[in-house]
Amino acid sequence: MHFCLLVFLCLSLIFIQAPTTAAKTCYYCDTIEVGYCTGIPDDCEEEQECYTGLGLAPLFPGITQKGCVAPRVCGEERSVTYMGIHYMLTIYCCEGELCNGESAVTIQTQSNSANTDPKTTPANNTTGTSTTAAITMAAVVVITGLLMALFICYML
What we know:
The chain is α+β, with helices and mostly antiparallel strands. The chain is built from three helices and six strands. The longest helix is centred in the C-terminal third of the chain and has 27 residues.
């Protein structure tokens, strides 16, 4: 009986320490004119968000960047120089795997003209469930493992 309790406690510790969140994948592209950035998948660090940066300068085509940023940067504006022209680049963040795809640029550009908050755009709601699903799946695995260990000990 003591052996079963020891096994149950060890399994509990293993499952509790199992990572419940994983770094997400976002599209990445360096500064380029809007419409030319298809992006390549890039793995972010934990706690980072996907972003699309949109830059504007009077009388010039817009620019874009994509990648991963710390959440505290979301919604910020920064000065960027591209091809010798100074742009004001706004960082639009989104949640979920590859949420900063090409459709996100269109939606974010439209929402920017409507004076919405750049931290949250309609693009955020399209794929934001993957992180929640990963956490939920990890919880199911932990609970299932603990119940199996308890059942095995009960049968002994």
